[in-house]
Amino acid sequence: MDRPNFDRLVKDGLPAVTPVIHVLDVGQALRNIDTVEGAGCPGAFLINHDFPMEDFLPVLREVRAARTDLWLGVNFLAQTGGVGFPVLGQLAQEGCRIDAYWADDARIDEREEAQAEAEQIARIRAQSGWGGLYLGGVAFKKQRPVNPEDHAEAARKALLYMDVVCTSGIATGQEADLTKIENFRAALGDAPLALASGITPENAHLYAPLVDIFLVATGINFDGDFHNIDPARLNALLEVTRNARKGAHP
To answer: Which residues contact 90 (CB under 8 A, 6 or more apart)?
Structure first.
């Protein structure tokens, strides 16, 4: 665990809100980042839903050059850390700092004792020279289904291979089953847990005592707009998290 990196996100026992920006271009990304920073969020994630990873890299370079102090995470859509870490290492060598990588699939198999794919990704990460925070998707949307009775085992196995275990509901914009999050929390103990779908100002109070980081997009965007954050909804979500302490689940 890169504790100083993680502590920048989570302070005073409150869950961190790191909005996810579905990037169209540099200007749109920066406008949304201004909204995120203006609301007082500790950072943001950028994701390339609309174009390939190769076209995303120039955008990342320009965003970092324009916002040198921003805590910035990325998701390379549909790419594991095995693909992402070498790219992040190259960006770092160029002076383009990326603080966190979120992969939808950390390649954890709760059915197996040995985690060959996760081990390989860990080796690639070490060899890449990239030193940021790794959030790995476990029992995550659009990946191989995991039986609910195996959620706790998946979470426990994941602990060895990432800094923050990240899970979700069944689809983008779909809230996670609360029992699933409770089971992840119990399995992880004090280790960090991130939730990455279906969070809204209306339901965040259910998850805030259990989760360390909220990765949220559609729940705070303007209605019918996949790409732009509504400042009013973001502020409403932050107000919920400010009133909820982790570990204080009713």
So the answer is: none
